[in-house]
Amino acid sequence: MVFFMIPGLAFLYSGLSRRKSALSLIWVVSASNAVCIFQWYFWGYSLAFSPTATNGFIGNLANFGLINVLNEPSPGSPLIPALLYALYQMEFACVTVGILVGGIAERGRVLPAMVITFFWMTLVYCPLACWAWNINGWGYKFGVLDFAGGGPVEIGSGVGGLAYAWVLGRRQDKELQNFRPHNVSMVNLGTFILWFGWLGFNGGSAFGANMRAVMAMWNSMIAAAFGGIVWCLIDYRLERKYSMVGFCSGTIAALVAATPASGYIKPWAAIVMGIFTGALCNYATKLKFLLAIDDSLDLFAEHAIGGILGLMTNAFFATEVVIGLDGVNTNVIGGWVDHNWKQLYIQFAYVLATCLYTFVVTALIVHYVDTVPGLHIRVAAGSETVGLDEVEIGEYANDYIEIWRDVLEPNPMATTDARESTLDTITCAAGRSQPTLSQEISTRNLRVHDNFDSDKFEKPVELEVLSGRGEARVSVIA
């Protein structure tokens, strides 16, 4: 179920982007998954969970290449073997880097992103996972309550994505004008795939078929429902429209908050958490303008802020009644509802440490990879205009006819008998002139007249004529 979140992320990001860069985001999420699997097998699991490391910051290489990781009790629970635990935690890491690489949306090169993924996993994710979940991690010993990854997964990916976008720089101004997601249906599909996978993400973190797992799933469902409704209603006040993207955004933000909290709180607290997460994460989307960082997919607003809110929810509403439902953690107390007042500063210190460490180290990794010859992290301005699908991938999520590429541009391989087309041969059924056609914004019915037997091969097509294209470059959808 957790693995199924990878295509969910890919579809979500693709739908939120422009059509010309949609497939590049599917590719980068998919490829980062492969890099993460290798890193986790190579030394990632050992750096995060090796039980013999005692520095509290990062593990050692005692389990390099999964050496001695078989059927001994796992670091997470004595009820499951270490090899199974390593596999499950690998999927957590894969989801995390899948979120992180969304920071390159529409202007970042994919090869440097893969290099960054490997180093980021090693220097950021593994230490964060060690802090919270390794039996010798400083956060674990400090008493931090982080059920399924508010720190390593959500703050790691959200703050890391913000740092990546900051070093990468903002998109060109013309790419930010009149921006809207190219496929909202895919946004919805990706959201519900993620929601399904999140039940395994949160429920599975109880490490057994027990009542704590059921409670975690219930809390995830309740929070997601309220988060989606609240976000949608806040957006409704602006345009009097029920935004599908808004509903999906609120749902994901609340699931993010449920990640660290779902195994600690009661359902009534999940309602409260869903409501204030949907509202605060909605307003947090404005922070990218305040910070002047082009966080194009709102990784910080949804994942970082949502993760922070979930972790702080534990300080107030975590209760030993829910924690002990797994039959293992029967001596762990909760937050303020259990009169454990110090849990507030414990959670706050953990949030502060994870945010600062993640942002600084991620920014340094991205900066230094950018200085390596051949690994510059951003495409050229012209390539950004054309789109990453054409420049980086060479394929398209939804292929379309590019008039300049497929009709107008001379083909050096063509023979003298080949058909030739010019802009003059493309006439508008509404009687538009060539200058008017090249600047037209709305979608109209056009006819493409081919010089080769035009009477026979004249064919109607639906053209989407885009403004702002130089040299009479216009795009069409067949």
User: Tell me about the biggest sheet?
Assistant: 3 strands, antiparallel
- SSE string, helix = H, strand = E? HHHHHHHHHHHHHHHHHEHEHEHEE
**Strand tally:** 5
Strand content: under 5%
Helix count, DSSP H or I runs of 4 or more residues: 20
CA(first)-CA(last) distance: 37 Å
State mean pLDDT (0 to 100 scale): 86
Class by alpha and beta content: mainly alpha
Helical content band: 55-70%
Unreliable stretches: 411-435, 437-478
How are the SSEs ordered, and which strands pair?
Elements: H1 5-16, H2 22-49, H3 82-100, H4 110-133, H5 138-142, H6 150-168, H7 173-176, H8 184-203, H9 211-239, H10 244-261, H11 267-284, H12 287-291, H13 299-317, H14 320-323, H15 343-370, H16 381-386, H17 388-393, E1 401-402, H18 403-408, E2 426-428, H19 434-439, E3 443-448, H20 454-457, E4 459-464, E5 475-476
Antiparallel strand pairs: 1-5, 2-3, 3-4
Helix pairs in contact: 1-2, 1-3, 1-8, 2-3, 2-4, 3-4, 3-6, 4-6, 4-15, 6-13, 6-15, 8-9, 8-10, 9-10, 9-11, 10-11, 10-13, 11-13, 13-15
